[in-house]
Design brief:
Length: 132
């Protein structure tokens, strides 16, 4: 990790305390304010992720909220045991729809494994041919 700065470690409770049951760790953004003069119909979250340890039952999910965190939608979930290897950097992109004239966005990561995050970029754009 020497070549990376700003790395955040997310660990579920069993990796933190050695507990038999594993509670998820939730890492959420504050409200991200969107330029209301732009009309986006798609958001993309691009992140760098490195799994230190993931058991068969562990997962990492990316959720988003269009209503200041009152409700959440799951954009993607990965099962660390089946979907990627440990000790390798991955740079997945996760796309999800924007709402018409959306003013704010929140994202959160839910994790039960032991992972590192290096960057999280949130991008919005207009894709022609998709509803806006």
């Amino acid at each position: 990790m020497k070549s990376r700065v700003g790395v955040v470690r997310l660990r579920g409770s069993k990796y933190l305390t050695g507990a038999e049951t594993n509670e998820e760790l939730v890492f959420a953004s504050q409200k991200l304010y969107i330029n209301s003069t732009k009309t986006f119909n798609l958001f993309r979250v691009a992140l760098d992720l490195y799994a230190l340890e993931m058991a068969e039952e562990d997962y990492l999910c990316l959720d988003y909220s269009n209503d200041s965190g009152a409700t959440w939608e799951t954009a993607a979930c990965v099962d660390g045991f089946d979907d990627f290897e440990t000790n390798v950097w991955y740079s997945p992109d996760v796309d999800f729809p924007a709402q018409l004239r959306q003013e704010t966005l929140m994202i959160r990561l839910r994790n039960t494994g032991d992972v590192l995050l290096n960057k999280v970029d949130v991008l919005g754009w207009k894709v022609f041919g998709l509803p806006s």
